[in-house]
């Protein structure tokens, strides 16, 4: 079953490059290349001007793949222009794809809690993978026409191409995505659809070239022209000579000829008359011609040097010479080809860029080009204004504005051109009015400004610093004096304005002196204001430092009290613990005495049965005195405690006696504590069993205390 909408068309209404009269479809190389690439799972782009047969190609290829078992969906993205936001746009696209592929509607997927947290673009890509593809075994091909509409509204610029690219990139590791492919058609290049020219989101997929009809391919229309009553091949020669195989124009002209009775000796005039009636008289009614004019005025973001000015220069050379050498990296030639005005051809002089065909050359001739150049200054100035963030400084002024007004009276303006010209007129009028007012009020404003500045500065100085009062008064006097001088100058200027032009120079000199005086007053006022601000900042800084010092002191007191309490509790706990250990050591000594020659492990077992909590403390003591033992830690610890309890000639007692002989009297518990502290400080190596070295360290530590 085909999953592609196949609305019927009358033969003459079929999109260019598609079906001709009597249902004839004119196939081209792309009809073989595109389905072969899609069968291999390649993402494909078909880029070109309007009315060259992109839509018909998509419909033809999708039907062929559907007959082979591929699930196909065809979507014209123009139908989603009414979506209010990105979420609505992506949902509408998902809903259309679900209907074409006989899948559940996306509402449940869209509204589930997990999806609500995701951007609309990620919800859409997840729906495509999990719903449209994952549950199928067949490959899925999605044909998207008019892809350039995804970038026409700012609210939708949320990375549609980036989503497609992520699906394309994920096929290396995802078996499901390897069964999905996209075929995209656009009138602009993928690079034109991204905001950042360096963004890589457009650099994926295979570009399939959709060429114009060859003369041999045009011969497929001979059946539809049989009723004209003339030599069909000669008639097709004439058609091809005029259209150069342009799909839409060839089909349109052939359809008109098929309905016309022709005289054998008047075939050429009849063809010319139809061309005049259909194309030349009403070019704006044909999408291919209207789009060419619109695209000619377009300046792409990533090809700023391919604006209308550059296009005019190259296109004029093409019209005058019949063609220029092809430059594959020339952005201006690319723009002219995307507009449909020119095409690259091979001839005796090599690869040339020539007019698209005779019809295009007649519509977009030298007269049309001159008309475009008349308005070029307005377009260039408008773009410069937009590039400068609509700065008032970039608006038109003076003679240039007058020229633009005269041109606008004879031409129809676009909305942005009309706005630009209107703002320029308003700015010009405002400037003239401002200059007129300034001439009358200049002196009065200077005096008033000086007075206001002095009053404001004086009020600020009195409020924050009495010490500055004297200075403010002096400055106020200077300002008043300047005001007085300015008033005198104004009176003199008003009186002298009535005199002859010979007195103008004197009035200007007086005005300059008044301006200088007012400027000096403004400078003094700024200095005073700066001093007041500095005083404010000093007071604020001092207050802040005082508060911070109080907070720091309070925090230090709390920390000291907490540290003192903690140290006291630690000392008390340590003393109690040491006393308990000594008592337990004595008890262990008694156990060892009673046990006779029992193995040490039996002694440890007896201790653990009698005092469970003592076992925990023995374990902790084991870890702390481990560096002092060169043998099994558990046995060494038991031996130390047992021998200490019996009071036998244990090394601790010898160490205690040796320290006493050297003048360092120490309790046994204090000695054990010292050894533990030395171990914690890293003074004792884990493998150190030389008690002489241990005694030296302990003596040094206790003697220092």
Structure description:
This protein has 705 residues and is mostly helical. It has 27 helices and 8 strands. A hairpin with a 2-residue loop joins strand 7 (342-347) and strand 8 (350-355). Helix 26 (668-680) packs across helix 27. 30% of the residues are buried. The model is unreliable at 1-22, 591-598, 625-635 and 642-649 (pLDDT under 50).
Name some characteristics of this structure.
705 residues; 61% helix; 3-stranded antiparallel beta sheet; disordered N terminus; 5-stranded parallel beta sheet; mainly alpha
Beta strands, count: 8
Any idea what the radius of gyration is?
48 Å
Helix content: 55-70%
- Count of alpha and pi helical runs: 27
Biggest sheet: strands side by side, in what order? 2-3-4-1-5
Question: What shape does the CA trace take?
Answer: flat
Major sheet size, sense and barrel closure: 5 strands, parallel
Topology:
Blueprint: H1 30-39, E1 44-47, H2 54-67, E2 71-76, H3 86-100, H4 107-111, H5 113-116, H6 120-133, E3 140-145, H7 160-169, E4 180-186, E5 206-207, H8 215-218, H9 232-243, H10 247-258, H11 267-280, H12 287-296, H13 308-321, E6 324-325, H14 331-339, E7 342-347, E8 350-355, H15 358-363, H16 366-374, H17 376-387, H18 398-409, H19 415-464, H20 469-496, H21 504-595, H22 600-610, H23 612-625, H24 633-646, H25 651-661, H26 668-680, H27 691-704
Parallel strand pairs: 1-4, 1-5, 2-3, 3-4
Antiparallel strand pairs: 6-8, 7-8
Helix pairs in contact: 1-2, 3-6, 9-10, 12-14, 13-14, 13-16, 17-19, 18-19, 19-20, 19-21, 20-21, 21-24, 22-23, 22-24, 23-24, 26-27
